[in-house]
């Protein structure tokens, strides 16, 4: 009887071990591309992301002294490239009193309706104080939390601004900057 119990318990331990959750989950991989396309990089105007169906995006860089032109989808001389418009849509964040801070400041950066990866977004309070910064992922979304006493509660409850300054480097710029206004709600 004890032997059957030990075998049963051993089987349960093996079965449970097979479903164990790791202590720290691995970071999620970017979703595979659905269609072939070239996406401008949100930070470096000479770089772009090449998407092929079923694969992860691959970062490519234009030859020296050229930039990636989002409208023509080719590397070209900086003086030939027209600045492409972007849009920032900011979401809703939460203000918590204990501990004091704002969580889930978030925004999505797009160009021509497509997500812009690697775009640096700066989140500021209504008074203009920088709350935090974050880069967008392949879905164009940037998010961060701001802890501590950063602004008055009144200022924070007036909302926040998410600003993308464009992809500027010494060689030039291909994506224009834009801003969006988000809301902050009290938890």
Q: Could you explain how this protein is built, in words?
A:
The chain is mainly beta and 187 residues long. Helix content is 11%, strand content 42%. It is built from 2 helices and 16 strands. It has helices at 2-18, 153-156, and strands at 37-40, 47-51, 58-61, 67-69, 74-76, 87-90, 92-96, 101-111, 114-115, 120-125, 130-135, 141-147, 160-164, 168-169, 172-173, 178-186. The strands form 4 sheets. Strands 6, 7, 8, 9, 10, 11, 12, 13 and 16 form a 9-stranded mixed β-sheet that branches. The longest helix has 17 residues, at 2-18. It is elongated. Residues 1-28 have low confidence and may be disordered.
Shape label: elongated
N→C terminal distance: 56 Å
Chain-averaged pLDDT: 82
The residue fraction in helices comes out at 10-25%
- The low-confidence runs, each spanning 5 or more residues with pLDDT under 50, are 1-28
Largest sheet: 9 strands, mixed
| Percentage beta strand | 35-45%
Supply the number of helical segments.
Answer: 2
């Amino acid at each position: 009887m004890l032997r059957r119990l030990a075998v049963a318990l051993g089987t349960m331990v093996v079965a449970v071990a097979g479903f164990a959750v790791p202590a720290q989950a691995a970071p999620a991989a970017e979703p595979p591309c659905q269609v072939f396309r070239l996406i401008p990089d949100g930070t470096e105007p000479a770089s772009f992301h090449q998407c092929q169906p079923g694969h992860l995006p691959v970062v490519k860089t234009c030859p020296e002294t050229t930039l990636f032109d989002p409208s023509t989808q080719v590397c070209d001389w900086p003086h030939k490239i027209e600045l492409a418009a972007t849009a920032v849509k900011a979401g809703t964040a939460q203000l918590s009193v204990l501990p004091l801070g704002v969580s889930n400041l978030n925004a999505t950066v797009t160009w021509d309706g497509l997500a812009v990866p690697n775009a640096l977004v700066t989140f500021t309070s209504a008074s203009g104080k920088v709350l935090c910064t974050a880069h967008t992922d392949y879905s164009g979304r940037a998010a961060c939390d701001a802890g501590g006493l950063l602004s008055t509660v009144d200022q924070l409850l007036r909302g926040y601004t998410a600003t993308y300054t464009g992809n500027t480097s010494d060689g030039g710029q291909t994506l224009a900057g834009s801003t969006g206004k988000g809301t902050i709600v009290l938890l």
